[in-house]
Amino acid sequence: MAELPKELIDDLVLANKILYRLNVVDAFGHISVRHPDDPKKYLMARHLPPGMVTGADIVTFDLDSNPLTHADRPQYSERFIHGEVFKVRPDVISVVHCHARPLIPFANVKGVKLKPMFHMCGFLGCGVPIYEIRDAGGQTDMLVRTAPLGKALAETLADKAVVLMRGHGATMVGRSIQETVFRAVYSMDNAVVQMQAHALAAGGEVEFLSLEESEKSMGGRNVPRSWSLWKHQMTAGR
To answer: Catalytic site residue 78?
Structure first.
């Protein structure tokens, strides 16, 4: 197979480490990126904790989530999340799946929606659906281990930036590795701030960004600045 761009591989490895350092993922979770030369393929690490991923661990998959490289090594069981999202969302270049603790209550508590609290989270203003795995697979271990379960998740995500997963975590998408990491980090931050606001309100009203405010603040101009800081933090003193 043709050699992949070093900068892309470096960014994918760095994204794994940033997500780990910022507590979006722990030993579990993963990030992928669409293949730069073939939209019917994607790249993601083999079965490893994100903080341990190196360039040598990056696997090429087809959109059915079959490994085209590293086929002799264990792969993430939930790789179908990525392949099925890439199938139905040609605009998506990168996907993150995580179990960030602050997001889980918003997937499990009925009648409470994750909504944008501040200008860094305008991408939440279009709505945050919740994936109910029981609707697609009945009683499971909550993991998206098959293509049909991944397809159901992708359908629930629809045209949104984030989908919460009841009893599990969340999946975020973006137009680049950098944007998807940004959305994962700030989705988690928004959840923390929103819970604080609800606690402070003690039954009172919480103000969220309006739809127009969300649309005006989601242009992505904050992504490069955030990425440059995170990259500096991860690489300084190397």
So the answer is: yes
